[in-house]
Design goal:
With 250 residues, this protein is mainly alpha-helical. The chain is 76% helix and 0% strand. It is elongated, with a radius of gyration of 29 Å.
């Protein structure tokens, strides 16, 4: 049975090494940039607590196995070794989950938010959130958008219908001041010519406006709260006439 004693001693050494690695992981999480999303931090803490709980149980079982061996209770010792093997597998799975959360904490806060709330939002919702990244990082912005969500449903909008998203788009545009996150596509061809004529009329700049300036002004005008109200009206009209909306955007 000396081999069993050596195996248990080896497990105890491994537990000590795991405790040291756990401390290193805590330091790594604390040093991550950008800051981890609160849900990711909470998930990591829960996973770390699970690892520590399993380690504590492994130490208890290892001690019991040593005592059983000293007393010649070999059937009990075999059972304790079986328990140790099962606990070792559980600890490995918990450690992998914990490491995955450390990797997640390195990602953009938007990706952290979506991962932390997996299953809560549909694919269409996630697409909308990606177009409005403040929803993931600004609690006040998110609460305001959720208020618009509840108002749209109370007004009879079908969830995830064009009219529903137009209502959310309008709220987001009001909160963002009409600004659009990320780069905007440059207009070209007849659309650019139309936009230039429109821009000259509304800005008074007949000459000197760049294609980028005109394109941004055109896109942001289309992202105004008023523009989204028009889209909502069109969507509701189409649903009343045809049972579905024929429009999503201009």
């Amino acid at each position: 049975m000396s081999g069993d004693r050596a195996e248990i001693a080896q497990l105890q050494r491994q537990l000590a090494e795991e405790r040291a690695r756990s401390q290193q992981l805590e330091q790594r999480v604390a040093q991550q940039a950008p800051s981890p999303h609160p849900a990711v931090t909470a998930g990591w803490q829960q996973a770390d607590n699970t690892v520590k709980r399993i380690e504590l149980e492994m130490r208890r079982v290892a001690q019991a196995a040593n005592e059983a061996q000293s007393e010649g209770k070999f059937p009990e010792q075999i059972e304790y070794q079986r328990q140790l093997a099962a606990l070792s597998n559980q600890k490995q799975a918990a450690e992998q989950h914990r490491e995955g959360l450390v990797g997640l904490s390195r990602q953009h806060p938007l990706e952290q938010f979506l991962a932390a709330n997996k299953g809560q939002y549909s694919a269409e919702d996630e697409q909308w959130i990606r177009l409005h990244p403040r929803f993931a990082t600004d609690e006040g912005y998110r609460n305001a958008c959720m208020s618009a969500h509840h108002e749209a449903l109370a007004d009879g909008h079908r969830q995830r219908s064009p009219a529903y998203y137009a209502r959310l788009d309008g709220k987001a545009a009001a909160l963002d001041g009409g600004a659009i996150a990320g780069p905007l596509p440059l207009l070209s061809g007849d659309m650019l010519d139309t936009a230039k004529s429109w821009y000259a009329a509304v800005s008074g700049k007949s000459y000197g406006a760049t294609d980028e300036e005109v394109s941004r002004a055109w896109h942001e005008a289309g992202n105004s709260p008023n523009a989204h109200r028009k889209r909502e009206e069109w969507a509701l009209r189409d649903e009343a006439r045809y049972g579905t909306s024929l429009r999503r955007g201009w």
